[in-house]
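Human: If only I could read backbone structure tokens as easily as an amino acid sequence. Underneath my words sits a plain record pairing an amino acid chain with its backbone structure tokens. Take your time, and here it is.
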Amino acid sequence: MPSLNSEYINPAFRPWADPIMSLFYLYPIVLGIGLTYFWLKTKKSWKNGLEFGLTYGVINAVTAFIINFSSFTFSIGMVGSWTVMGLINAVVAGLALEKLDD
């Protein structure tokens, strides 16, 4: 979505040169470890990894959309793209966890 690119040039984001931005790369690692632990503890409660991923994705996407849309001055398209990306990532993570567990 090239039209959203200009919204990323915004003082709400830290510059990539800021050392604190390295935490951006830590997020998926921590999330992956947390979801793996949660999957291993609850996998018998789910039909499959798709159901797990969709459930996590919808819960995360709706709450993230609300907090991001209410906190930032970004367009609904920008926040919506993050929401869709988060939902897709969660589904892929659920399917991957199921596959790795075989």
Q: What stands out?
A: Helices lie at 23-42, 49-71, 76-100. Residues 48-102 form one domain. The mean pLDDT is 90. The chain is about 65% helix and 0% strand.
